Each structure stands twice: as structure tokens, then as C-alpha cells.
Amino acid sequence: MSETTRDDRQDPANWRRDNVLGLLDRLGMTRDKTAKLGGRVNPRLLALARERAGVASDSQLIELALGNLVIDDGFPEAFRAARGRIDPKVDLDL
Predict the structure, then answer these.
(1) CA dist 61 to 4, 14, 41, 54, Å?
(2) Is pTM beyond 0.70 here?
(3) Residue 53: CB partners within 8 Å, gap ≥ 6?
(4) Nearest CA-CA partner of 41 in 29, 31, 49, 33
(5) At residue 14, does pLDDT exceed 50?
(6) Count of structural domains within the chain
């Protein structure tokens, strides 16, 4: 991967990518790569996904995608569950 600038690190997509890949590394899930995965996808889809994820290789893209599935923080479910509700104790006066 190329050297990142300060703005790159503040971008949410880059921040998430770096944190997911970092956590996978700390958990030892980036070593002992013996499983093989294959499939056919549209080349434009693959290129756009690599570009959006900020990765250069298909292997890193697959690792990031699988990591995003495994390292779920539960935010979407919590956000949906809280929809339309706010704690009555919250002061909304601005």
C-alpha cells in the first residue's frame, strides 16, 4: 500500500480498513494462510471494490471483506433498534 497522508487517515473508509486489517493481524488471522478461495466476478466490480477499499491486491480485498464480516460491532442493529427513540432525560435545548 502507498504511504498515507494525514487526510487519508482521517477518511472513515481508510480508518476502518486500517483498523480491521490491524485487528486481524493482532488476532493472528493474517498468518498461516493455507485456505484457498476462488470465484468469478465482474472485473469492473473487482476494480471498483479494490479502489473503494484502498487495497492493491485481490488477496487483501478478500481479507478485508471477510474481516468486516467477522468483526461486527453491532452498530446497524443498535441504530435500527433506537430509531425514533430518545432518552427522555436528554436535554434538547440548544
Answers:
(1) 18, 13, 13, 9
(2) no
(3) 13, 17, 60, 61, 64, 65
(4) 49
(5) yes
(6) 1
Inter-residue contact 13 to 52 (CB < 8 Å) = yes
Q: Measuring CA to CA, how many Å separate 17 from each of 2, 70, 76? A: 14, 13, 18
Altogether, the residues listed in the chain come to a count of: 94
The whole domain housing 21 covers: 6-31+40-82
Cell numbers given for 45? 466490480
DSSP for residue 42: -
pLDDT (tens digit per residue) in 33-79: 999 999 999 999 999 999 999 999 999 999 999 998 888 778 878 88
**Other beta carbons less than 10 A from residue 72's beta carbon:** 9
In a domain, residue 47? The reply is yes
